What we know:
Bound molecules: FE2/S2 (inorganic) cluster
Mean pLDDT: 94
Number of helices: 7
Largest sheet: 7 strands, antiparallel
Low-confidence stretches: 1-8
Amino acid sequence: MTSQSSATPLLDEPQMVLRILDHIDNKATDMGEETWVEPVVNYQSPDRLAAEINLLKSRFVVFCPSQSLANTGDYLARNAAGTPLIAVRGEDGTAKVFRNACRHRGVQLAEGQGCKRVLVCPYHGWAYGLDGRLKNIPHRAGFPDFDAEANGLVAVPSREVNGLIYVCQDGADDGTNDAASLDVIPNLIPDGYELMTTEEVEVDANWKLYLESALEGYHIRSTHTQTFYPAQYDNLTVVEAFGGNSRVTYPYQTIERLRDRPQSEWSTNGRLTQVYHLFPNVVVSTFPNCLQIGVLEPLGLEKTRRHTYLLGDIGYKDATKAEAMKKSILEGQEFAKAGNVEDVEVVVSAQQGLNSGANTHLTFGLFESAIGRLHAGLHRELG
Ligand code: FES
């Protein structure tokens, strides 16, 4: 069995295939160097949750894919770490993120997604440009001393890197905040991928319990008996670290067809799923010809909302080809959704099990090292 160190760079495609075939031949998997023991109180403490939410505000965290703001005036509004934010594609093509609150009396300017040239507050009609400037106050004479120039929408520091828009709520918006942590994240979104769907689901469990279910393949056979297991392997993953992040690779059995082909022809598209955990609360999961970006929003100790953005390889000029690919991807996603339902069932059960008082600590085994890295990162950041 293979150990991985935190200094290991991400494997390239041939290296990954070789590692997987070696594991198949030896009935092995990647293993961490030590188990991780996490106190249950860290899932139950309101103070700990408040600290975790503050952490989500203090770092650059994925807000949405660039594709959610494909055109000028496109906007996406949602809560991030409990704060209502709105991301907008401006006239100059740049994406900006603002606190979603009118400077009059705080009403949110928009909900969900759409496209507008002007953001008009639904309460009294104050109007803001896509750059956040306050452009119009109806019955202006009622606010003789109000400085409209100084009261545009409040910007949140953001970065658009490799097709993802990140926000850092507690940073200064003067370019001085540290975005270096983003440098280690590879370009995860292939050319031609376009936004296909945006979904939200709420799960009655702590956000970490939900996240943990995506970070190990130890449960494939038991939990996904009729879904993933027939096509994959039980407890066979490749686990890598980059920065404080992880990549967990889940091969499909079709990868064995590569044995008889020259390495120059090895392509893993359609032969594995890779889950990139972008610390702390984001997972990017690859599937054949598509990927999901999942952002976990803690709503309480036992409630989590997952925002999921599905991007697919549908950027073909040929409409028939694009439509066929779209159909194929959406059919495949039904399979992934069935697996997610199974994950949610065990995660909600785990939440209830935590509340039983049976365990004071949870132990994560050597196969579950990406979960250990998640908790180690939280311990490092929160003390
Ligand atoms: Fe927005 Fe009054 S609260 S215009």
